Amino acid sequence: MAATSVVVLDRGNNTTCTINLHGATVVSWRVNNQEQLFVSKQAVFDGKKAIRGGIPFVFPQFGPWTFGPQHGFARIVRWNLEKAPERLASGDVEAIFSIMDNDFTRSMWNFSFRLTYRLILREKELHFNIAVYNPSKDLTFSFNMLLHTYFKVPDVRRCQITGLHGCTFIDKTRENTCYQEGRDVVTIGEWTDRIYQNTPQEHIITNVVSGRKMRIQKYNFPDTVIWNPWVDRAKGMTDFGDDEYPNMVCVEAGHVSSPVILLPGTAFEASQILQVM
Ligand code: BG6
Questions:
Q1: Which residue from 122, 113, 167, 107 is spatially nearest to 141, judged by alpha carbons?
Q2: Distance from the CA of 114 to the center of ligand 1, in angstroms?
Q3: Substitution site in 65, 73, 148, 175 for ligand 1 pocket (most atoms within 8 Å of beta carbon)
Q4: Could you report the predicted ipTM of this complex, rounded to two decimals?
Q5: DSSP letter for each residue of 51-80
Q6: What tens digit of pLDDT does each residue of 44-73 get?
Q7: Which domains does the chain have, with CATH numbers?
């Protein structure tokens, strides 16, 4: 076991971001001492299982996978700290993480790749810049990617999510039936597992911690997944408390309903900004 497994970005003013190198999972984001992310009290930190909460990194597969674990391997491998936290001239703090192919990844997905994940902590914002590079001279590969963000909320039933009106969604709770969203704002009052397609660049979630709003801005992530397991499915998860489902909502920016196809020698870039309003 390597010694350090968490990396902390500290902007001052009790504003911090903590990343566990297991999966480069963001496990805490505090703004003025107020935690913004949900992590289950039953989350397992054994360096094997994906961490239940925070922001797991889903790559190169979203959902069940014939060749490896659900949601791919990026969330269960140890990432490298490419650049330790450094204060920028603006006062913001930056760190960079990376993974590349090795025997383990090649046993599931036999491609060379390099994935870099840059985080910048601002006063009330967290910025994510992602790049995937295909170093091959002749092989094209395809993949899914998603930031599986678990927002902490006092009561999910009081949250409204904007930016989904008119979007087509695949409802995983109804055998992947496709529907069109007719509501101006989406609310959650039951088991919800939906892939909204071609969503706009911005969503706002109301009534997150301290009654505030959370703005999500995303670039090159055409899909938005909304997930809450609700009571029965919460009971079925060993690493999620039975009574925790009202305190989280997953609003996940991703490229999942169609794959990213990456030609030899090219790179894919995507980003997200979370902002407490
Ligand atoms: C969501 C999926 O993104 O992740 C759900 O849409 C899934 O279908 C959920 O249940 C949690 O997945 P996991 O593998 O972390 O239990």
A1: 113
A2: 25
A3: 148
A4: 0.99
A5: PSBSB-EEBS-SS--TTSSTTBSGGGSBPE
A6: 999 999 999 999 999 999 999 999 999 999
A7: 6-153+219-276 (2.70.98.10)
